[in-house]
Design brief:
Shape: globular
Number of helices: 5
Structural class: mainly alpha
Low-confidence stretches: 131-142
Distance between the termini: 55 Å
Radius of gyration: 17 Å
Order of helices and strands: HEHHEEHH
């Protein structure tokens, strides 16, 4: 088993990752791909992303709107629906629980986690910003 399994792992969680990428607001395919790549997930091709976006739209988890631009081709913008947010919260929680179980089993097997990369640390800071801002607002309300 010397092959790289990341593509298979990504396929199993890509729907959640796309939903998560839309929590900051609407976006179009190329920007979603960039966001995911900046998270350390590698380059995701349009032939992989757009079927996911279509599936999420058909399920009512995102809505899409085509917009004509002054320069270049029009773009299809995607936005998370309330149902999409709920699904992300539920399924994301299940994924995190699964991740903990996998990590625990690997650690018991003697596998050590690699040191975080610079992009991973940057993403952790970015991910924590909304939580920190929310905590600050809660503190202001008290």
């Amino acid at each position: 088993m010397t092959s790289d399994r990341r593509a298979s792992w990504l396929k199993g969680v890509l729907d959640l990752l796309v939903l998560a990428s839309l929590t900051a607001g609407e976006n179009y395919g190329y920007e979603i791909v960039k966001d995911l790549a900046e998270s350390g997930l590698g380059q995701i091709k349009g032939g992989t992303l757009y079927p996911v976006l279509n599936r999420l739209e058909e399920a009512g988890l995102v809505v899409a709107e085509f917009r004509v631009t002054e320069r270049g081709p029009g773009r299809r913008y995607y936005q998370l629906t309330d149902q999409g947010r709920q699904t992300l919260a539920e399924q994301g929680g299940l994924w995190l629980s699964f991740d903990e179980s996998v990590r625990a089993a690997l650690v018991r097997g003697g596998v050590e986690a690699p040191a975080p990369t610079a992009s991973h640390e940057r993403n952790q800071k970015t991910q924590n910003q909304p939580q920190n801002q929310e905590r600050e607002r809660e503190g202001e309300l008290r």
